[in-house]
Amino acid sequence: MNMVEEFELQLSQFFGAPYAVATDSCTHAIELALRYTKDNNVTCPARTYISIPFTFEKLGLSWSFVDTNWAGYYYIGNTKIIDAATYWQQDGYVSNTFMCLSFQYKKHLNLIRGGAILLDNYNDYIVLKKMTHDGRIPIQPWKEQNIDTIGYHYYMTIDTAKMGLEKLPQACATKARVWTQDEYPYLPEMPVFK
Q: Which of 58, 68, 119, 169 is the most core-located residue (most Cβ within 10 A)?
């Protein structure tokens, strides 16, 4: 087992999720989940990180802002995808979802950059893992593979996973603060969305 797989295993065990797919960012975790589920009609909280509506635009989705109160995490519209970028809770995985985490420098587990998708279906795990690695199975040389999945080069590096393994025990042992929508500006008022 390499360091990325070990980090995924320890992360999934902490959250109580059967599987975790490590990514290079939470935004890319959400993008991969949206590409995989093919959800097209979604909503976005009016107060969240700006990369979320930008991702919807990038993917050409039909979307709109909604005023909603959230703490810790929120669902991307009526999908099974959860933006849990600010969430950190032992056994906090919500079953039957794609729960997307962030390890950006302000988050409870600070790896400077990184993310993950928590999920509970093995087949989904395999496809999403390949999607993070340019459509290939990690570790095995890609030129020896018959690639059957479109990939996006969104994998977590070994160095980031190593840092995650070093910092994970402390993060698991300390209580995380609960973020709310009040920590974000009201996005619909920004010129870029008008």
A: 119
